[in-house]
Design brief:
Elements lengths: L1 H26 L7 E8 L8 E4 L4 E9 L12 E3 L5 H9 L10 H4 L2 E4 L8 E7 L5 E6 L11 E6 L1
Parallel strand pairs: 1-3, 2-8
Antiparallel strand pairs: 3-6, 4-5, 4-7, 7-8
């Protein structure tokens, strides 16, 4: 008889614990998904978007899709975001001879890279997720495939 009286009390207690746990979970702030920026790179050696605006510390995912009928060894694109004050021309020259991904390996240049993708050939998509810098300002992004930066494949991430 005592067991029958205890069961409803136990069941109510268990239900109360479950309700409290669900309320705690629903009250926790949901982490926002990164904002997705979709870039395309074509045989014209230009990004489809040359200006990105972001809030300080905002989480972004940049996707680069290659649009080309040429072989990947001839035409591929990437996204490399550089720190303020980087010698962009020097970086691009170092990248042009850094095979196979065209990302310089020297420590000087590694420190300049805030985010980068692999190379996307025609029909391929590569991506990188990162937090925008916290310091307001303009940050250059480039394609490091040989000749692309000089052909105009660059843009600016403005943090404000």
């Amino acid at each position: 008889m005592k067991t029958q009286k205890l069961f409803p009390t136990f069941a109510r207690s268990l239900a109360l614990v479950g309700t409290v746990a669900m309320l705690a979970l629903s009250a926790a702030p949901a982490q926002a998904a990164p904002r997705v920026i979709k870039l395309t790179g074509t045989d014209a050696m230009k990004y489809s978007i040359a200006q990105i605006n972001a809030k300080p510390g905002e989480e972004l995912t940049v996707q680069v899709t290659g649009v080309s009928s040429q072989d990947k060894v001839v035409m591929a694109h990437n996204f490399v975001l550089l720190a303020q004050g980087t010698d962009v021309n020097g970086f691009v020259v170092a990248a042009s001879v850094a095979r196979p991904l065209h990302i310089p390996k020297q420590e000087k240049w590694k420190k300049a890279i805030l985010a980068s993708t692999g190379l996307a050939g025609g029909g391929e998509t590569v991506s990188v997720t990162f937090k925008a810098p916290t310091a307001p300002g303009n940050y250059v992004y480039v394609c490091t495939f040989p000749g692309h930066y000089n052909g105009g494949m660059k843009g600016v991430l403005t943090v404000k």
